[in-house]
Amino acid sequence: MSQQNNLDHPKLDLHSRTGTNADTLQRAILDNLFYIQGRFPDVATPHDWYQAVAYTVRDRQLHRWVKTAQTYKKQKSRSVCYLSAEFLIGPMLGSNLVNLGIEDEVREALSALGQDLDVLLEQEPEPGLGNGGLGRLAACYMDSLATLEIPAIGYGIRYEFGIFHQRIENGWQKEISDQWLHLGNPWEVPRPLLTFRVNLGGHTEHYTDDHGNHRVRWEPERVVLGVAHDTPIIGYGVNNTNLLRLWKAEAEQSFDFEAFNTGDYYAAVEEKVKSETISKVLYPNDEAISGKTLRLEQQYFFVSCSLRDMIRIHLQQEPDLSNFHEKFAAQLNDTHPAIAVAELMRLLVDEHHMDWNPAWSVASRTFSYTNHTLLPEALETWSLPLLQQVLPRHVEIIYEINMRFMDQVRVLTHDVCGAVTRLSIIEEGEPKRVRMANLACVGSHAINGVAALHTELLKKTTLNDFHNLWPEKFLNVTNGVTPRRFLLLSNPKQSKLISDRIGEGWITDLEKLRGLEAHLDDAGFREDWRRVKRENKEALAKLLKERTYVDVDPQSLFSVQAKRIHEYKRQHLHLLYVVTLYNRIINNPNLSMAPRVHILGGKAAPGYAMAKLFIKLAHAVGEMVNRDQMVGDRLKLVFFPNFNVKNAQRIYPAADLSEQISTAGFEASGTGNMKFSMNGALTIGTLDGANVEIREVVGDENFFLFGMTAEEVVHLKTNGYHPRHYYDGNAELRAAMDLIASGYFSHGEADVFKPLIDNLLEHDPFMVLADYEAYCHAQSQVDDLWAQPDLWTRKSILNVARIGKFSSDRAIREYCEKIWKVQPTPVD
Ligand code: GPV
């Protein structure tokens, strides 16, 4: 019982908070239920039990966390700071159990208490602190950093309201505000003493100090507090427990006593409300957010707190900031935190009195920048007047950075073809704007894209001038996803099947999956593989029935497209194919075909009318197709509502076919494509983003390729694209579009889908019609293979066996070697 431990208090018995056998866990769960929540078993709800288990797991993380902090400090390790406006971490209980390796023990402890772990897992609200790929990537990287024993802090915003919940009403998306903190968050530790004051607005004053130095004082209009909230991130099978440190905005004084004393109660709380607004809500992306003052304030708020926290940590050990960049590598996750370049200069020069040149050297060796998109509308710029209003000192600093940069550029480029104007951080115009990507490039020593094709296109197009200037700064790091959450946790059956054959080494060394190829000719193994997929599909079919009331046959081919809704991702191409199949059945009632279930899921940005219309179309077509007696079980179309991390984990394992059909050159990488493959789906896809590399490793005979290349897309666009030409030339395409336009799917109201059809015929910016025929052809090849189940299974196994490259462990190793120059620091 009196197990020794040598943390801070050698004699303290912490066994009940560290022990991991079922008996100890059972007692700990009961203790937490009673002492933290004031509940006892007779009256505890499933959510109470969930929280008691969560606290029990967190206790076991906290010891490792303290030990980790001590180790990093003692070893003076260089740390990675991942600056990101989004961390889409998803539910934590399941992945923490998996990473700690105590799932079986907790399950046993709970069953002794009459509780079912699976029921409790369902209780956890999802921390939806991100929109999609970019935020989820940051979460996968946090998992890999800890697993690889790399000292790291994730810095971001503790949004009170994460991404909205999607409800479907009459086929239309309705946004419901997220309340993930409503019942409390057992995973976070608030740190009220770790608070920074963040200035906003006001003006600057330049003066000369007693020693004759030029100094700048920023007199803000208001001050907001940033309070740290820490979530421990534990690695798989290691003791390293890193930190996700999210900042919550609070008012400096929760009460204005002067206003209160004069009787104006409302004025007294007004300032508090205004301050706290900064971390209130996550902006749903794809929307025009430039011009939103609050969004800029959010970006500056979390960046300022994070940099000052890094400086605080640094000065605990070092006399000054001249070697700050040796202690920290700061990654800018897209341009959302790019104001960090100016803020670090302000902190070093104004507050720590460094000279400009050494300060610049420190800053540019600290930062590196990841670009996640080529879409011009997603490249952030802030209008200068707005920036001036919120961050007057930063405008001065950005001008100074730009002046020095422009001097350098004129010498280096001789302004060939107007390169100077394009490289400038300031965009001319009325009003002038600050280009955040340019600021990030100038202030970073490394710039990377997220897939090979994406990086090449960045170099050739969006960041071409910067590439000409500094080719050595550019490199590629293809994205990856964590196999712990997206295989081990979410697909336990396939995981067990794999481990039974090749051991558990794949969990931290995903290339080991190649060992599965040796079992390809084992008929028993293929049989098991099919059975597992089948069981996963049955589970999803059950869930679909609960959520959508649609019956689907698990024997059918499950074809899935689940991701944010966007025209460039071309959910409408997918829907045109479903309507085409429907037409084929109507025209030939005895048609024999591979029975298919098409599943779509994803959220549309609230202000993106066309994306919302796609959702309506999916429901409208589904409603007609699914109840048509003539169709029967040959074809179903289901929209899975509220696609989020939790739901994703139940969808990937059940997919046969993964739809990755974006217009070539538009999807920077994609990460869902990797998760589907890892779970044994074959991909039908274009040569876009990471699809290119997935096809390379799984083999082109195990991938259904179709469509124009990125080059062909550009070529067609420059030579004049006429979508109507494809409409006129393809009878099936015409029939599908005409049927939608006729009002057949909208109770005779032809107007409903008119904007969608008109847009395709007149503009079709993402060339859906040009790729339609090739897509249908590739889908026929899918059907042919589906008719040979054993061959399909072989290809499914091969996809998994060869997908090792797309582990986020590989991606993080590349960042560590090529960009961050950090080494593992194991914790005993
Ligand atoms: I910029 N991405 C995203 O989710 N949100 C954004 O604001 C931006 C990019 C995505 C890309 O669209 C994906 O192709 C990519 O896989 C993902 O970022 C992670 O790199």
TrEMBL record:
It catalyses: [(1->4)-alpha-D-glucosyl](n) + phosphate = [(1->4)-alpha-D-glucosyl](n-1) + alpha-D-glucose 1-phosphate. The modification N6-(pyridoxal phosphate)lysine is found at K675. Keywords: Carbohydrate metabolism, Glycogen metabolism, Glycosyltransferase, Pyridoxal phosphate, Transferase. GO terms for cellular component: cytoplasm. InterPro entries: Glycg_phsphrylas, Glyco_trans_35, Pyridoxal_P_attach_site. Its EC number is 2.4.1.1. GO terms for biological process: glycogen catabolic process. This is Alpha-1,4 glucan phosphorylase. Phosphorylase is an important allosteric enzyme in carbohydrate metabolism. Enzymes from different sources differ in their regulatory mechanisms and in their natural substrates. However, all known phosphorylases share catalytic and structural properties. Allosteric enzyme that catalyzes the rate-limiting step in glycogen catabolism, the phosphorolytic cleavage of glycogen to produce glucose-1-phosphate, and plays a central role in maintaining cellular and organismal glucose homeostasis. Its cofactor is pyridoxal 5'-phosphate. GO terms for molecular function: glycogen phosphorylase activity; pyridoxal phosphate binding. Belongs to the glycogen phosphorylase family.
